[in-house]
Records
---
Amino acid sequence: MADDSHSQLALDTAAARVAALAEHPLVLALREIAARERPVLVGGALRDAALGRPVADLDAVVARDGERLAGALSRRIGGRAIRLAPGRFLAWRVICPAGEIDLWDLDGATLAADLRRRDLTVNAIGLDLAAAALIDPHDGLRDLCQRRLRAVELSTFEDDPVRVLRLARFRVQLAGFSVDAETARAARQAAPGLDRVAGERIRDELATLAGFDRPAAAQGALAELAVYPGLWCGFEAGRTGHPEVEAFARFERALRALEPTDSPIESRVAAEHALRLRLAATGSELTHADRLTRRAILSRRELRLIHLLLDRVGPPPEDDPALALQIWRAGRHWAEALSVAAALAASGEATAWPRTLSRARSLVTRRGAALLEPRPLLDGDQVAALLGLAPGPRVGAALRALVEAQVQGTVTDELAARSFLRRGGWRHEGRERVRG
């Protein structure tokens, strides 16, 4: 009986949080101008409000006249209305200082059909603004309170396999939620259908997943739903097995230890692809990476980054000069390069990586741009004149070797730079040409 009371209290609390959205300034304005069109709030804002999470953008459906209402609403609140990309649905986005709201025109369809086409019950809740009534035909509010992800229709994944990736995304985004058993089974069965989906759609979902900054949880979700390893090594291979979450946990711990502040999202996406390719397809990962690039799941830029990151996998550098050189060679992708190497470390090397990562963070903090983007102590003309060389590759090789010596701390001023070049150190140092 106590459990029933607790469940009812949770439901009442969640419903009250959703109802409070009716007082949002954008919602009040919409209710005033669109009473005849029966505006209904839908989507993620209701889900987040029910969970007590911050609500960002709003979505509403109207029975008709979406374009007119979007214009009227933008004028009322001092914003602007833009038509969203044409497709199956008529939609406009109204933007103002108070936030954003997307208006979806049902254009003759019913609200029931609109909610039924949504993927998960937690996303299929509505708030009728005219009647101030919660609309929950698929019991999504109860699923929210029970922290359960359940499909509105089990066929949703076969209809659009990208929804398997969306399910993985919500599994990560909504910490503490689990996937309903029948929903998970349907998603796993539909996962191979990703092979017939436009690669750009898959790429966008994986980038969103990486943006949550929880790579171990993302890897667990992709394995749970049978997206991994098939998407990376081919569903036709029929491979299943260990999700390799521990390697991703090491990767995540490494990034936390390094605390990069300006790491580009493309580096994170490429790093996670590199790990999945290496773990799922040892010895043939670059062949599979090429296949993913041809499908546009990977961009050419991400493919180059994967090559760069996997080329740098190896034991932890033994001293600070070697570590500094490894950081510099990876450039702005240094944190991901070290984290991938730590994640893939052999068992005998794993214990050394935490100390190495601490040294790396200290080096970058202390030296900053002097390490990541050092300015050569001599320019190309000076090097050419000093060595009696014509402009060309040999001057470039000398300059690179000089910068590497600066990075390692063996050359610290112009006098030392000239001495280094005269004694021919550049002829046998700094052979690596590719830098991120």
---
Amino acid sequence: MGYVTSLFLRKMVAAAGPDVDASALLTEAGLGPDDPWDPQHMVPDTRYYTLLESIAAKIDATDLPLRVGASMRCDEYGALGLAWKAAPTLHGSMSRVERYARLWTSVVEYELRDDPRGVLFILHRDGPRRLGMRLSNEATLASAVSIARQVCPVPFAPLEVQIKHSAPPETTHHETYFGCPVRFEADLDALLVSPEALAQPNILGDEGISRYLVSHLDRELSEVATEPTLLVEAKDAIAQALSEGTPKMADIARSLGYSARSFHRRLSEHGMSFQTLAEDTRRDLAKGLLRDDALSLAEIAFLTGFAEQSSFTRAFKRWVGTTPATYRRDRQGP
């Protein structure tokens, strides 16, 4: 499971207007309707997508991502927004996002890639392209254009917008907002930006302030890096699925928003196979459950995905070197 800043949820609900019950939507998403807007408060991405789909069921959401994107302000992104403004050029601003986006989302990665016509500012997001994700992707691209316009000394528009999913019935709003052709069913989710636009000096560009903010962001990024990783999230998903038997990699990948191939690749990057991860999860879960005297060994066998207690006993002895009953007794002490 990935996470996004709650700021995006609140912006979407605010932009949806009076035809939705804002308080009910926020409460359902786990946010207090009257709580302060805190960009550092993160929520699961699936909860965000579900909220967007709930809004789309009540209103025509065709231009909702564009209105949300237009409402975004640099200052709302905290130090990252300030670093965007203080970068010497627009290229520097986008480079900040490429490096530090992890501070407000764990489900999106950005890439600057050279193109014969300029530079592609690419949005990478794994997972099934459900309606909520599609709306979120459009809002993300619209937000990038909005904050670029806030720092650029001349009117800014990309050369082209590329969107991987199919076009809505009406695309006039998109072309009007972006000020350029919008190509749906493309190979990427991206903005194509001209070299001239990227070289424009930012209105508030300041090298000294920029260096200070980048140093601050580096510290923040190092702190984020200590939070739950893919392996922790995957183990949690496996643990929750074990009561239904041994989980399949494809099912766990889907629950985390990855294709099976992408999930396998990401695990490999951590030096881990799915089989090893599932085995480690079963072992760790069993050891934890054995500390709860209210659970019988048969119940623990079921919760760790074994059809029979004898199978659980053999596996546990292989993992730990002793039987579950002995392990529990040893943990209790004299």
---
Amino acid sequence: MQFSELYLQAVSLLHDLSTSKGILASTIETDNYKRIWARDSMVCGIAGLWIKDEIVTEALKNSLLVLAKSQNEFGMIPSNVLPDGTDASFGSLVGRIDANTWFIVGACLYYKHTLDEESWKILKPTIEKSRTFLNAAEFNNKGWIYTPLSGNWADEYPIHGYTLYDNMLRLWGEKEWLAIEGKSTSQLDFILKKTKVNFWPSKNAETELIYQNPAFQKAMEKGSKHFSAFILPGKHDSRFDAAGNALALLQFQLNEPQKKHLSEFIETLPQKLIPAFWPIITKESEDWNLLEGNYSFSFKNHPGDFHNGGIWPVWMGLFCLGLSKNGLDSEAKKITSSFLQTVENNTDWAFQEYIHANSLNVGGKTQMGYTASGIVFMKLAMEVS
């Protein structure tokens, strides 16, 4: 199979998921996936925007309007909602921070690409309310939002606190919003600088930018080949988060030592494929207790499975795009080539959610827009010069 063939299949799936009510997460006959999801619909919609696909772009607009209508009194965007706008869910065990951040990014990018003033009249006040909610989620008014355990897409994985993923997503939305509004970015620029310094500590960091010096120094001495997943008071968690690193690569320009370290890290991964989180948590890991009981229906995070080392094409694709934007084109091409080979080796390939890190077999739900979007991002990565 040529990658171009896989790409065309991905776009076709995105078309199948695009409806007059919004973008569905999957075509499978399961209630939860026949809903409009803030994350899935925005990710798919952004993929459509970036390839200038009119069908997906129109469905993105529909998704935004359905989600906006279901915003609650506190400014929260629902995690998912039925296409008719009823039965909005804001999360199960806890609320989902990234429903709000993805919504803002999706809405701003939609307006930026279409200049649809009619829809913007509805979306703008919704964004303003959602921004107020996110400001409150900082708790200390210092620029970073604090995500509870299970509070984002990786809802069964132990990631929480000041997460790279949630904060990079929030800052991306702020950047797009301020550009549309024509407002000053000085405060945003400071938070971006602070984020880059703290999530990948180095010796030349400006003292006034350091969040907490003892934890920063410890993390710096330990060293890292990528951005850290999250920061807690007293601790920098240095595991790799593909989505968070992807979003950071899209917004930051790495220096040469960072590029070298990141390239070295990729070489250590299974078949150079990019897992959602790494290293894998095992029963011997210190945070296994935060993983083993954190599920709603059944335990899926066995070592190498699901969030726990599972390779999600959506984040791998976005990561490849971030690599290319940092001049690491050869790394992105190696990852894409390895992914294509893995797809060819899986005779039951059907746009599954993830690939098992150990067996490299596909797993999870099928016909996922998330996965189709990841393939679109890989295609875009190969086109970045």
